[in-house]
Structures are given as C-alpha cells and as structure tokens.
Amino acid sequence: GQQLNQSPQSMFIQEGEDVSMNCTSSSIFNTWLWYKQEPGEGPVLLIALYKAGELTSNGRLTAQFGITRKDSFLNISASIPSDVGIYFCAGQNNNDMRFGAGTRLTVKP
Amino acid sequence: DTGVSQDPRHKITKRGQNVTFRCDPISEHNRLYWYRQTLGQGPEFLTYFQNEAQLEKSRLLSDRFSAERPKGSFSTLEIQRTEQGDSAMYLCASSLGVWGGGYTFGSGTRLTVV
Fold it and tell me: Which of B42, B99, B107 sits opposite A101 (nearest CB)?
C-alpha cells in the first residue's frame, strides 16, 4: 500500500488561482519528486528535489524538499485550464520509488 | 527515440486467460520498472530490472505474475490465470540508474478482466 500521505485528495479552483498540495511520509527519502498524470497516460515528471530544504521552480511550479526529509509541497501559481490532472508526489531511495495517492486538480475557466 | 513504449494500450480478457504485455524502454536506459495502478491510487511498485537481471520483486507480484527482460532491452510482463482483481493500469518506466533520478513512464496498458 501507499506509504506517502498526499493532501488534499482533490481541488476545484478558478483559473488564475494559486494551488498548494503536500505530501508527508513516516519514512525518510533521499529524493522527492512530483509527477502529473493525465487521463489514459503515464505520469510525467515535473520536478525532482535532491536535498533537504531545497526549493526548486519549473515555470509556474515550485516545490520544496522538507528539512526533515519526510515531506514535500508543490505550489502552482496562476493556474490555467491545462493544469487539470492528477498530481502525484513520490519519494525515492535508490531504486525504491513510492507514490502518494494523488491530488486531482480541476480548474474552472 | 520517442520515450517508453507499451503495447497493447488496452486489453480486455476473460477471467482465467493469460495475458502478456510488452515494454520498450528508452534505449540508453539500463533500468526498467513495472508498476501497477488502480483507480484512485498512485502507482505501486511490482518489479525492476537492471539490464537483464531482475533485482527486486514486490509482494504484490504473486506467483501468477512473471516478468522478463531477456536481452536487457525490452521487457514482458505475463499474468497467468487472470482474476478480476488484476484489472488495473500496468505502467512501465525506465531510467539511467543515476542516483535519485526520476523515471520516464510509458502510457501504460489498461487491463480489464471480465
């Protein structure tokens, strides 16, 4: 089963709003990653974080690797309709990558 | 190279039948992973290969499941005597094996057992 607790499960927002989602774990991870999955497709890597405390941006996306190495958050600024999808956090130690259950994002135009 | 390819994209089978899925990873990637994803959940690890060696298998991989990567390139995942509980999306991913590097996923094979 899932070892990562991701919240919220779903979000319904207006276009232009900012979004924040987070992920916590009882285990320490060396790498935190955020993926986006659209219907009928596999997850696509958005951001990878390699160091505790690291803050990384990718366009309108910003993610942070928690200092305890047990959590991470993802922010999306100024959301647009194409941000719709399911966002997954993942924690990785070597070849062991575990996923959260996902946050389903709906953006209303 | 266009990424990780999976075939077929969809498979509907009757309970008790055997099915086989294929994954072609990114050519220079030496590591290949199989995950299973059910509705409303994140991907769950099944097994992984480094080149042709299967190095780890999850407890989710029952005796009815077998995976191979005979020449260290493409991989197959076979499910024997399928059950309705096997219905899921089966995802393949590959990586270069660089420390902490993310995986590149394929589009998956959606299996429906009726």
Answer: B42
